[in-house]
């Protein structure tokens, strides 16, 4: 079947993947493979902009490759590669930086937030982060970029850079990408309040053991109004119930919805059910991940092959870009 175009997404290697990564991103990346030619990039250069992500960079990069492959990325069709393995992106980053007004970068909400988070380390790379991201996207002539809403300003920025570049050099070699918002649901952590993430230690890791997962789930916060077992609960405000919907058979979800409201089922029972269903759902992922972890050479070969295929596209684009800007 003819594919609809090329999808590109960059994923930061920030450590072991959790349910938030899975529901918020990986699931979509996997599904998009059916309709698009997909290019997925582990953005290790972007990770260098934040110190906490650099400490275990190599391990995190490898772990993310394992997680993506175990989740269902099919490297025979999809290009899965590591950003720094295709150095053309840094060349394009430099060229695009010449058509980027500095004020635009320092005005971006993502930059301002990072600057607030790490006031002692507002490095130049942080300012240029969106230029490198734009280079990622346009180097592969991507049509569609699946990202969460927080990345929308970066996609808009990319479109502007493409227009400026094409106008300045009277060319049409670069393509304006479309954004595809894939953040169907914001996944909250075990605290039931904040977005799931490693920094808040409220995550449920995909590759944890069933027992670790069960313990994590049993520690989850539920409807804060429900104190005693006999209190009726409200599933609409309970994160455990929200997550049930992604991992539990529909009939059981319907049963919990009814029984929780009339105190027919308690939070402990509800969480035990969730842990069991979650562990069952993650079984194939964990089996595949363990199988891959036992073959590091195979994972390396996948990434090498991905980089070679990515480089072929990148070199072609760069030849056009160099010609447009009159570099040799
Ligand atoms: N900035 C993205 C994030 O923080 C990661 C990223 C880097 C990206 N390059 C990209 C996403 C290109 C989409 C396309 O999640």
Describe the structure.
This protein is mainly α and 328 residues long. It has 2 domains: 212 residues, Rossmann fold, CATH 3.40.50; 83 residues, Tyrosyl-Transfer RNA Synthetase (Orthogonal Bundle), CATH 1.10.240.10. 55% of the residues lie in helices and 7% in strands. It has 14 helices and 5 strands. It has a 3-stranded parallel sheet, with helices on both faces. The chain has a two-stranded parallel sheet with strand order 4-5. The chain is elongated. The two termini are 39 Å apart.
Distance between the termini: 39 Å
Bound ligands: tryptophan
Q: What is the string of helix and strand elements? A: EHEHHHEHHHHEHEHHHHH
- Structurally, how many domains make up the residues? 2
Estimated radius of gyration: 22 Å
User: Structural class of the secondary elements?
Assistant: mainly alpha
- DSSP strand count: 5
Overall pLDDT score: 95
| CATH H-level superfamily title of the largest domain | HUPs
Strand content: 5-15%
> Helicity range of the residues?
55-70%
Number of helices: 14
**The level-1 CATH class of the largest domain:** Alpha Beta
Low-confidence runs of at least 5 consecutive residues: none
CATH architecture term of the largest domain: 3-Layer(aba) Sandwich
Q: Biggest sheet, open or closed, and with what strands and sense?
A: 3 strands, parallel
Major β-sheet strand ordering: 1-2-3
CA-based shape: elongated
**CATH-assigned fold name of the largest domain:** Rossmann fold
């Amino acid at each position: 079947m003819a594919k609809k175009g090329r999808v590109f997404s960059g994923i930061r290697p920030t450590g072991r993947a959790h349910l938030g990564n899975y529901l918020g991103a990986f699931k979509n990346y996997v599904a998009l493979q059916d309709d698009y030619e997909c290019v997925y990039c582990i953005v290790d250069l972007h990770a260098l902009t934040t110190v906490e992500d650099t400490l275990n960079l190599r391990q995190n990069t490898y772990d993310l490759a394992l997680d993506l492959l175990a989740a269902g990325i099919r490297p025979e069709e999809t290009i899965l590669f590591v950003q720094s393995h295709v150095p053309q992106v840094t060349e394009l980053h430099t060229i695009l930086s010449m058509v980027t007004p500095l004020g635009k970068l320092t005005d971006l909400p993502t930059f301002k937030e990072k600057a607030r988070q790490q006031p002692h380390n507002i490095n130049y790379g942080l300012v240029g982060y969106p230029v490198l991201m734009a280079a990622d996207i346009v180097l592969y002539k991507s049509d569609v970029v699946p990202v969460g809403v927080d990345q929308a300003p970066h996609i808009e920025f990319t479109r502007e850079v493409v227009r400026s570049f094409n106008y300045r050099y009277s060319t049409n070699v670069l393509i304006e990408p479309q954004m595809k918002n894939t953040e169907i649901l914001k996944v909250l952590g075990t605290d039931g309040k904040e977005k799931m993430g490693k920094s808040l230690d409220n995550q449920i890791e995909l590759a944890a053991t069933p027992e670790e997962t069960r313990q994590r789930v049993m520690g989850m916060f539920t409807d804060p109004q429900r104190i005693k077992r006999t209190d009726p609960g409200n599933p609409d405000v309970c994160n455990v119930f929200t997550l049930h919907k992604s991992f539990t058979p529909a009939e059981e979800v319907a049963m919990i919805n009814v029984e929780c409201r009339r105190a027919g089922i308690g939070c402990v029972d509800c969480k035990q059910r969730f842990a069991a269903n979650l562990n069952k759902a993650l079984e194939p992922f964990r089996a595949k991940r363990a199988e891959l972890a036992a073959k590091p050479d195979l994972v390396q070969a996948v990434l090498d092959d991905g980089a070679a295929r990515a480089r072929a596209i990148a070199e072609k684009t760069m030849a056009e870009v160099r010609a447009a800007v009159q570099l040799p």
